[in-house]
Amino acid sequence: MPDQHRAFFAQLPFVLIGSVDQSGQSWASLLANPPGFISSPDAQTLRISAMPQGSDPLYHSLVPGASIAVLGIEQHTRRRNRMNGVVTAVNPSDFVITVHQSFGNCPKYIQARQVRYQKREAVTQARYHNSLDLELCRTIEQADTCFIASSHPQAVHGPQSMHGEGAAQGVDVSHRGGKPGFVKIIDNNTLLMPDYSGNRMFNTLGNLSLNPLAGLLFIDFDSGDLVQLAVRAEIIVDAQQIRDFNGAERLLKLHITRILHTYAGAHLHWESDVQYSPYLGQL
């Protein structure tokens, strides 16, 4: 991991995590703590001093040998760096990752927001759903940002990946952004997401073409609510369907199989002022 990436992660108040559960389902999660909670003792190691709550699928996926992905994003500067690797140690208050791959991404479609860590004292409630209700629909309909986790079919939950093929067969988590409401609700179990021109790395699409099980994370930047979706993704390239989404190169049809709604689950405070990405004007 380059020194620039190591310093970048160390200054963040939150990161996004991609993981795989025992059934092979990918999930996207958020971890937050005061800046400095992420450290890198050397170029091959990342230590994260924050743990998910027990209801988050990540809680049970943090085992030595598990494939894992990390996305660091600094919203107000639109900087983002990604890495993936393998969990090598899990302690009561932190876990350690051996880095297989670390790379930067362009600032496309990131909405600029100021954010700071803010511990929420109230007991966090988490509820599982099998389909969207009105409250969840409102969160998605208002969203200009989400995160998607995907994985290679050989990315695994347990110790087997300690001796695997590295980054090429691991987990990935990435950012998606657009105008508010860019993710369309087809029905209570189906979403449609445009896929715009990005970094041309095709990490997510490459994984989805081999393994359709993906995880989405929506954040309510006002309440701090987290909405995690387990989905089965279908890549749509039909021009007739794509033409209704300006700027889209393809669509992701996302069939929802499980939902976790965590109330005020993000220990963060976002300022209300938002500067939308200049790239949205090209859509």
> Shape from CA axes?
globular
- What fraction of the residues are assigned to beta strands by DSSP? 35-45%
What is the CATH C level class, in words? Mainly Beta
Q: How many DSSP-defined strands? A: 17
Major sheet characteristics? 8 strands, antiparallel
Q: What's the CATH architecture?
A: Roll
Class by SSE composition = mainly beta
The low-confidence parts are: 161-165
Helical amount among residues, as a percent range?
Answer: 10-25%
Task: Give the CATH superfamily.
Answer: Electron Transport, Fmn-binding Protein, Chain A
Distance between the termini: 34 Å
Number of discrete domains: 1
- Any idea of the CATH topology? Pnp Oxidase, Chain A
One letter per element, helices H and strands E, the order comes to HEEEEHEEEEEHEEEEHEEHEE
Oligomer: single chain
Number of helices: 5
Overall mean pLDDT: 93
Keywords:
Pnp Oxidase, Chain A; 17 strands
Account of the protein in words:
- The protein is mostly beta strands and 283 residues long.
- The protein has a single domain (3-282), classed as Electron Transport, Fmn-binding Protein, Chain A (Pnp Oxidase, Chain A), CATH 2.30.110.10.
- It is 12% helix and 42% strand.
- The protein has 5 helices and 17 strands.
- Strands 9, 10, 11, 12, 13, 14, 15 and 16 form an 8-stranded antiparallel sheet that branches. The chain has a 7-stranded antiparallel sheet with strand order 2-1-5-6-7-4-3. A two-stranded antiparallel ribbon has the order 8-17.
- A hairpin with a 4-residue loop joins strand 5 (67-74) and strand 6.
- The longest helix has 9 residues, at 134-142.
